[in-house]
């Protein structure tokens, strides 16, 4: 049986339509997953990780943030804002971390913070100092990362989060252990 619209048989058209529909649904699913890479895949005691195992944030529709994102906001503003500007937006001599995190994964971020980075040329001199021995950074490195990740993704505004989860006991214990060393 030939179709009226062309030379192809009707079963071919149905198979092609099914294939295109499946392809479109697959594309939609893939782009939806890509559009929200920071979506928490799991959590343990209020600490969230994505599908790759990297720390991430959890912000509820009413604006409540998880403890670690709130802690990251506090730690960023006590240690990083001097160079990188308010809320990771950058300054005249340090880059916007909200832009940097669009190109950096968790391991790369950690390496730069711990080891520092130098990019010196005749036209510019960019130096990120090492923070590997600074407990005010290292004890809260994941917190700073999730805060900046939320800012980078546009999930968190440039203001202090109004609502946050309470500090979990595991965070209190980790802080005590880290600061005591």
TrEMBL record:
One of its GO terms (molecular function) is electron transfer activity. Residues 159-175 have a biased composition (Basic and acidic residues). Residues 1-35 form the signal peptide. Residues 48-152 form the Cytochrome c domain. Transmembrane segments: none annotated. It comes from the Bacteria. Residues 158-181 are annotated as: Disordered. Keywords: Heme, Iron, Metal-binding, Signal. Pfam families: Cytochrome_CBB3 (PF13442). InterPro entries: C-typ_cyt_methanol_metab-rel (IPR022411), Cyt_c-like_dom (IPR009056), Cyt_c-like_dom_sf (IPR036909). PROSITE patterns: CYTC. This is C-type cytochrome, methanol metabolism-related.
